[in-house]
């Protein structure tokens, strides 16, 4: 079963749909370093000093101010959305990054300034369990939840087991060591049929999480992201070929926006129905195949050529 969530990001949804249609139309045409102890005073000083603290965060009464949420993989596509959502909900949010220097460049500030506003950005090598343990031990506002959004860039066997399994396991163990309550793992819907090393590494970590009893957990398996789908259009525009499986009716897509996925993940911290479960989650509509999208694209082209105004 795939849970479907509402789409509030209408602009993102429309952009995604246009990207999908355009991509199919193209096919049819051309076939921490060692931290000081993080006290409440330190947190305030970090927030006032960081270039990411540039906007007011409207959180009623700071309801979750006594809880810390650690986000591993914070600079990733979903990670940054999770950081932003965590801050909105009033948690003391720690965003783990490999290199703060990268975030302080012009490109880094442009990419992360808004998402990381109100969060504490800390440098830490998640592949180093001792560094993780030291970091979490120096946070005096109790760590309530660790959210792991780690993902290997290439998905090769070596990288998948180093990041998607071992580094993620390091995060789980470090959370347990400081008596965290909950662990949220960003997994993938495709793990149901594990053919790739990346999927097998994620499944191995899922099994470890389910075997332990110290932390409650939520394993989130989203379908395709908007970015991964719209990225196909960018690749085609750059001259890359479009990969089509079978006759276009084999694979189906039901993408979810990063902001809605982040909301769903943060909901799992307080919703008992999302506790100690594997949760499949996707967008609100029925999945569409490439063939269906191509048919819609052709219809839109015909209507456009005939001067018909369309509202998506």
Structure description:
44% of the residues lie in helices and 14% in strands. The chain is built from eleven helices and ten strands. It has an eight-stranded parallel beta sheet with strand order 1-9-7-6-5-2-3-4, sandwiched between helices. A two-stranded antiparallel ribbon has the order 8-10. The chain is globular, with a radius of gyration of 21 Å. The chain starts with a strand and ends in a 7-residue tail after the last helix.
Quick recap:
The protein is an alpha/beta fold and 312 residues long. Helix content is 44%, strand content 14%.
What's the number of structural domains? 1
CA-based shape = globular
What is the name of the CATH architecture?
3-Layer(aba) Sandwich
Residue runs with pLDDT of under 50 for 5 or more positions: 4-61
Number of DSSP-assigned strands: 10
CATH class: Alpha Beta
Mean pLDDT: 78
The percent of residues in helical segments reads 40-55%
CATH topology: Rossmann fold
Give the number of helices: 11
- Spatially, the strands of the biggest sheet line up as 1-9-7-6-5-2-3-4
Oligomer: single chain
